[in-house]
Design goal:
Blueprint (H helix, E strand, L loop, with lengths): L1 E2 L1 H5 L2 H4 L4 E8 L10 E9 L12 E6 L7 H18 L8 H10 L4 E6 L1 H5 L2 H8 L4 E4 L3 H17 L8 H20 L27 H22 L5 E6 L2 H9 L4 E3 L10 E2 L1 E4 L4 E4 L2 H12 L1 E6 L2 E7 L7 H5 L3 E5 L84 H14 L5 H6 L8 H13 L3 E4 L2 E4 L3 H10 L2 H8 L3 H13 L1 E3 L3 H9 L4 H13 L3 E4 L2 E4 L6 H15 L4 E3 H12 L3 H13 L6 E5 L7 E8 L4 E7 L3 E3 L2 E8 L3
Parallel strand pairs: 5-6, 5-7, 7-8
Antiparallel strand pairs: 1-14, 2-3, 2-12, 3-4, 4-9, 10-11, 12-13, 13-14, 15-16, 17-19, 18-19, 20-25, 21-25, 22-23, 24-25
Helix pairs in contact: 3-8, 3-11, 7-8, 8-11, 13-15, 16-17, 18-20, 21-22
Length: 682
């Protein structure tokens, strides 16, 4: 199950957690052997003797249970990470001096407060606590763009450790997870309350040099602190506001420097978790109310900080929660969803297949089955389904079925909405109408569907042609002059949510013109655009040129074909990781000169030989590169010109989708563009 915290709280595995002591453990493939879980907390749940409403939460207390055998340095890191997690959800609070208490209390009487956040305050619970404490004023967050850059750097370092299982990675991995996930989660939850501050280019002289930094690493840190301080001065000079402004940091030296330079500063020390029990409720004198958090919120934060969390009761597995799963999409990160395995499922962590284009991508979990042979050490698994004409069962939330290809209706003209032999409709138009039918979930006349579009309403004829394609693909049913949600509509929404374009292609194969073109591409490998109209006319009768080309766009939009010069090429095949690595090295060897090759040359030939679309190739290669699948090659990020792009590909959700061009001249690894590849094929 892929759930948000709110959805999880309604699930039986959470609502019926037994009273008594639970054990909370974690697993992280950066420093744990496969299948190894380490203790973090014991949670004592108290169930009331009286019946409460369904939304009520059980009372609980918790205590740290980090293994006694853990090295002192590692135990300290685990304890710190645990403390910050409890602080972020509101279970513990920082210790305040009398002066700091009075200052925050006075800020609470202001009408507006601007908080300029240091990087550490974004993830250590300080800003989380301040937002919860400052109830009366309007609070604005102003993080610097350099903080986001540091998040990207930490994420890149984290990816390089995934699957390495070295105990020495513990400190850096856990600190990086906390910084990346907690910071971005805070900003996403408060997206209406923050504005990222750009830096004056003249201040970049304080940036640490590229590469491994200066000879003196402390000097590099000092320069970055100076960049932050100068940026604050620039903001304060240029801002004219009556709202109170405070720089928030947990770095005591930086706080002293700022105060020395006359900058209003809040130094708030990060809270510390002692050996005593922590209750799920505490009284906060600043808020003058009880504060706390449901156990589900704590589990959610722990999973994002420690990768995978397992909850057991007297040795019996209750559930496992993981922040990472195959092809996790940006909106899943935005909703902070977790992969939940209940007690009646096999206790395992999910196969991690894809690297996302989000800063928190991390395939850091043990696969259910490892690759055999010389590549086994890299835990490489196929990233995408097999070709849709050879469907392979994959795990899909709530459905448990693979790509399904059903035959088109025997008589497409029967009870037709449009009489066109080849209805001319675009994929975006089909999706917009699908969203209306899905959201309203009731019988609708054609005019009602059009009227419920928010903007850019089509004419009746255009809408009917799109609805006819939807009818033939079973996205809708058309009975008695009314439109009903069809058997494929829910699948369409689900496949969009998880970014499975192969699954959507399976739905569109019920549209006979789409299937005819796809079969021809698979058989021939490529075809000219001028060949499409005769091909369809031979099978369907006379069709128009524009209608034929409109259908051809479906294939590139769904990642099954791609444009190369005057031709359209088959891109529906899906390679295993072993095949992809072998083919990539082969193409690199043929393309490189003096050990150097451009991504444009290599990726183009890789797609042609593998008959893989750029969309599928990018997804698979990103993951293999981040997992160390090409140890003999060097992928160096660099700056480049305007991207050389392939066809736009569908992404997003049914409610908010877009067509995104796929770059051919670069591979984005953690938002860092790779333009050239160097090394050997040995």
């Amino acid at each position: 199950m892929y759930l948000s915290a709110a959805e999880f709280r309604a699930k039986r595995c959470y609502k019926e957690l037994p009273a008594g002591e639970l054990s909370v453990e974690y697993h992280d493939s950066t420093h744990h052997a496969a299948g190894r879980f380490e203790p973090l907390l014991s949670v004592d749940i108290k169930r009331p003797n009286i019946q409460l409403d369904e939304d009520s939460e059980a009372f609980y207390s918790l205590q740290r249970t980090i293994s006694v055998g853990t090295k002192d340095a590692d135990a300290s890191i685990l304890s710190d990470t645990l403390s910050l997690s409890l602080a972020r959800v509101g279970l513990i609070a920082p210790t305040l001096s009398e002066e700091l208490y009075q200052e925050i209390d006075s800020l609470n009487s202001e009408s507006g407060v601007i908080l300029i956040a240091d990087t550490n305050s974004l993830y250590n619970g300080t800003i989380h606590w301040l937002i919860d404490t400052l109830r009366r004023p309007v609070v604005w967050l102003l993080p610097f763009v350099m903080s986001l850059t540091q998040i990207q750097q930490r994420d890149a370092g984290l990816k390089s450790m995934v699957g390495k299982r070295k105990e020495t990675n513990l400190a850096q991995a856990l600190r990086s997870r906390a910084l990346v996930n907690a910071s971005l989660g805070l900003l996403e939850r408060n997206k209406g309350k923050y504005q990222v501050l750009e830096l004056d280019p003249s201040l970049l002289r304080y940036m640490r040099p590229s590469g491994k930094g200066t000879v003196d690493h402390d000097q590099g840190d000092v320069l970055e602190d100076r960049l932050f301080v100068e940026g604050i001065h620039a903001v304060l000079r240029s801002t004219r506001t009556r709202a109170s402004q405070r720089v928030v940091t947990s770095d005591i030296l930086l706080a002293r420097i700022l105060r020395t330079e006359g900058v209003p500063t809040l130094y708030i020390p990060p809270p510390r978790l002692d050996a005593q029990k922590v209750s799920c409720l505490r009284y906060d004198p600043l808020v003058k109310d009880f504060r706390g958090a449901p156990l589900a919120d704590l589990i959610w934060d722990l999973a994002h900080a420690f990768s995978t969390i397992r909850v057991t009761s007297e040795g019996a597995h209750q559930f496992t929660a993981s922040a990472y799963w195959p092809n996790k999409m940006p909106h899943d990160w935005h909703l902070e969803k977790l992969y939940i395995q209940e007690s009646n499922e096999t206790i395992a962590v999910p196969i991690v297949e894809g690297v996302q284009a989000t800063p928190t991508s991390d395939p850091g979990l043990e696969p259910l089955s490892a690759t055999k042979g010389p590549l086994a050490q890299q835990d490489l698994v196929p990233a995408l389904p097999r070709p849709i004409d050879r469907p392979e069962t994959l795990e899909r939330p709530h459905m448990g079925e693979g790509v399904e290809v059903l035959p088109a209706p025997q008589n497409p003209q029967e009870i037709a909405i449009s009489s066109a032999q080849l209805p001319q409709a675009s994929v975006p138009q089909i999706l917009r109408l699908s969203a209306v039918v899905y959201d309203l979930n009731k019988p609708l006349a054609v005019s009602e569907v059009i009227r419920n579009l928010v903007d850019d309403r089509p004419t009746d004829g255009v809408a009917r042609r799109a609805l006819e394609v939807m009818r033939r693909t079973e996205l809708i049913r058309y009975e008695g002059g009314l439109i009903y949600a069809g058997s494929s509509l829910r699948r369409l929404k689900h496949y969009l949510d998880i970014g499975d374009l192969d699954g959507i292609s399976g739905i569109f194969k019920r549209f006979l013109p789409y299937e005819i073109i796809l079969d021809a591409l698979v058989e021939r490998g490529s075809m000219l655009r001028t060949e499409v109209e005769p091909l369809l006319s031979d099978r369907l009768g006379v069709v128009g040129k524009e209608s034929s080309l409109r259908v051809l766009r479906y294939h590139s939009c769904l990642g099954q074909a791609w444009t190369f010069g005057d031709s359209i090429r088959d891109g529906s095949q899906r390679l295993s990781d072993r095949q992809a690595i072998s083919m990539f090295l082969e193409v690199f060897s043929e393309s490189c000169k003096d050990g150097l090759a451009s991504v444009l040359d290599v990726l183009t030939q890789f797609c042609i030989r593998g008959r893989v679309s750029p969309w599928a190739a990018q997804r698979q290669l990103k993951r293999i590169i981040s997992e160390g699948g090409f140890p003999s090659l060097i992928f160096q990020p660099a700056a480049g010109a305007r991207p050389v792009v392939s066809d736009p590909v569908l992404s997003g959700t049914l409610e908010s989708f877009e067509l995104t061009p796929i770059p051919m001249d670069r591979i984005l690894i953690g938002d860092r563009p790779i333009f050239t590849i160097s090394g050997t094929t040995q």
